Amino acid sequence: MADMLAAVLHDFDDLRLERVPRPEPTNFGEVSVRIRACGVCQTDYKAWRGMRRNVSFPTILGHEPSGVVAAVGPGVTHFKPGDEVICQPSGFCGICDDCRSGRTHYCRNAFVTGGDGPDDVWDGAFAEYMLTRETCLHAKPSELSFDAAALTEPLSGAWKGMVQYSDTRIGDDVVVIGVGGIGLLCLMVARAAGAGTLIAVDPSAFARRNALQLGATHAVDPARGDIREQVYAILPQGPDVIVEAAGPIEAVETMMALRRRGTRCNLFGITTHEAFELDGGYTHFLEARLDASFGTNPAAMVRAIRLMRRGLVDVERIISHTFRLEDIHRAMEVMGSVERNKIMIHP
């Protein structure tokens, strides 16, 4: 049996480069993909450091890949070896009520490659090869690099949260709290959707500079005083849309404090089970809408590919570092640095 190089997480803070058996597509609809690029997500870093505990060991992380079809299993009809593809990490059955209602990311029989959420977790793309299903593949347009293609999944999540769920419209005034990699994608989607004033809130001067370069009209530093006062000095009538793309519970509390009547809010970054206070009567009379968005679906993936093909969002501008798979330990260390954006792994 052929083998491959993979970064196998055996326990928290125990990531090993190993030769492991290469996955082969033996079941109906399965495809093996030779990975060319894979983004590192904050959830990967949290799994490595033990901040995310819903991990079963051993496992191979990495859920933002692009690559080339290496082999196909029985029943595969739409892809063949040599095809360049984008891999959607979330797999779905297509049969359950949620799938047939268009909510495939709610699928009761879901699996995920290299990520979290469903109980059924397949090995991911911090490896030379990865196994998935044909239904999770999208054809990679020839004009997109493998790096850009690998960012389809996070871009699709940003589109789903900003446009599909929070209904960002032309002329809306938008606040993005937290402008790391995913926050920058939310910002770029908001800009492409026609946002008027676009405010980035982040304690990192590095992140604020990036946000201004990528379309933010203003950047707010929490260290310079009350965030609400700073935002409302720019937007006296308050924001139309606020997205929390940071993660800490303090960012959620900031989002709640920035609302005015009719504001549409999205819990996008927080993935930990932490509580915050919500004044029910105040929220009632504000008619402020609170949404949340996780994961992706085929429609959002298609939209993300279109945004890149039309030149509306240049995702490669958020890539700050690239590493070979052999250097993944260094990549994970850089993930803990303030001055980094998206990190790409090239197996």
Write the layout of secondary structure elements.
Layout: E1 3-11, E2 14-21, E3 30-40, H1 42-49, E4 59-60, E5 65-72, E6 84-87, E7 90-91, H2 97-100, E8 111-113, E9 120-122, E10 129-133, E11 137-139, H3 146-150, H4 152-165, E12 174-177, H5 181-192, E13 198-201, H6 205-213, E14 218-220, H7 227-234, E15 241-244, H8 249-257, E16 264-267, H9 280-286, E17 289-292, H10 298-309, E18 319-324, H11 328-335, E19 342-346
Helix pairs in contact: 4-5, 4-10
What is the highest CATH level, the class of the largest domain? Alpha Beta
The second-level CATH architecture of the largest domain is Alpha-Beta Complex
| CATH topology title of the largest domain | Quinone Oxidoreductase, Chain A, domain 1
- CA-based shape: globular
Q: Helix and strand string, N-terminal first?
A: EEEHEEEEHEEEEHHEHEHEHEHEHEHEHE
How many structural domains are formed by the residues?
A: 2
Helix-and-strand structural type: alpha/beta
Q: What is the beta-strand fraction?
A: 25-35%
Q: What about the largest sheet? A: 7 strands, mixed
**What is the CA–CA distance across the termini?**
20 Å
Number of strands: 19
Structure description:
- The protein is α/β, with parallel strands linked by helices and 347 residues long.
- It is 28% helix and 27% strand.
- It is built from 11 helices and 19 strands.
